[in-house]
Specification:
The chain has 278 residues and is an alpha/beta fold. It has seven helices and 15 strands. The longest helix has 17 residues, at 48-64. The structure holds glycine. Glycine is lined by residues 36-37, 39, 80, 83, 102, 179, 265-267.
Amino acid sequence: MLIVVASQAGPGLRPAFAMRRHIAIIRPVSRSIVDCELTHLAREPIDYKIATLQHDAYRQALVDSGYKIVTVPRADKMPDAVFVEDTAVVLDEVAIMTRPGAVSRRGELDAVEAILQDYRRLERIVAPATLDGGDVLRLGRRIFVGRSSRTNDAGIEQLRTFVQDHGYDVEAVDVHGCLHLKSAVTAVGDATLLGNSAWLDRAPFDHLTWIEVDSAEPHAANALWLGERVIYPSAFPRTAALLRAHLEVQKRELCRVDADELAKAEGGVTCCSLILSV
Ligand code: GLY
């Protein structure tokens, strides 16, 4: 179910946004999601129907935000396939197919690549490197990459070689206590981050505005910033209040969606899409 708590009708698109076509690549929830990879969470039952309803609402929130949806076919034999963000890093100039740290997830890439090749020139991370898209946070021409249980130094280095000629700086960030860099911090504006300081080294972000999650909501740092709107889980009301206060000053909207069933699979709102413009 989509809960819109602090959103006005219509995306209210700015002219610069309206001049390009905006695409969200998503993949339906796999029937096997209950068998997903888990690193920091205890396994608990996941209701496929509820997860699918929540994913449908997420999809609608993207549509309402001005995005055309491109759907990768469902992959029932790959439990984590809904978390399509981990399969690629998409920039304006190039897309880099990742090499996920979890072996069980490497089969997810082929179907995503078949779609992305219509939109971008592709590069590929190769062994022994590993890289999950959930570890990659872009802010303008700076790309922060989590050094995590899923992404190794070779993955960070290969990413750097693919993007540096396009003018991007790549900076590694140590992550601990959570799955990905974007479990610990996400962008909610051009120079504003939402984060949980307990899960990363904050030094690389010192020059940016930092909104700290409420201490009662450690998992609240994952938000999907879409320019005019931030899509955000309804499970974190305290942090949502902090975030809404910040966004209102900038005349931006908070669009809250139920995502707790997918969160049991250790996935957040950024994990469920690849966002690009053409
Ligand atoms: N369950 C999401 C992941 O571990 O990649």
